[in-house]
Amino acid sequence: SVRVGAWFPKDKEQGVRLDDVAFNKTEGVIDESQALGVDFHFRKNIGHPFYTDLSAGAWYSSYEFKSNALQTAFIEYKAWTIIVPVTIGLSVAPLPVNPVQPYAMAGLGAYFAFTSHDPLQMTENNDLPDDTDTYIRFGYYAGIGVDFLIGESFGISVGAKYQFIKFEELDGGKTLFTGQEDLTGLQATIGFVMSI
Q1: How far lies 10's CA from each of 7, 35, 133, 184, 187, in Å?
Q2: What is the pTM of this model?
Q3: Read out DSSP for 50-94?
Q4: How many CB atoms lie within 10 A of CB 71?
Q5: C-alpha span between 10 and 85 (Å, rounded)
Q6: What is the pLDDT of residues 50-97, one digit of tens each?
């Protein structure tokens, strides 16, 4: 199946730290997007009602903070993160061959994070350097899905996963540039499924 959707992590609306000065969320305007992305999901029957699951996806989240809290400086901070989960799991589809195929799934895997930021501090035109980092953490998920088969080899696929993944205590004490540490949350998707 190939599905698109949204991911709603716990962490949101945080301030930023620039040049060792911390700005909290009450000191500026925050524009933050939930993670949007695509999920590729492959299931193989290993004996009814069990299937192995392989999944890979890409989820994009962005964050922007603007503040003139210092009165002598204007702060603008833009950041983005792409999370790429690569997981393996097991699903159970209890019904026999049927146009409506509900299933439950669980699994674990590696979660890659690619994160970057563009900080601007307008104090004597001090433009701070851009930076990009890559991290990997391990997490797990549980979820449900339903495939609505239109024909023998094609249908509509709806899924919901609850991802358990944290990026706290990163290398060097850093967090993702979007400020998120706990990305645990619901991921809802819809798309199509084909049999091959």
Answers
A1: 10, 11, 22, 6, 12
A2: 0.86
A3: EEEEEEEEEEEEEEEEEE-TTSS--EEEEEEEEEEEEEEEEEE--
A4: 6
A5: 17
A6: 999 999 999 999 989 888 766 666 788 889 999 999 999 999 999 887
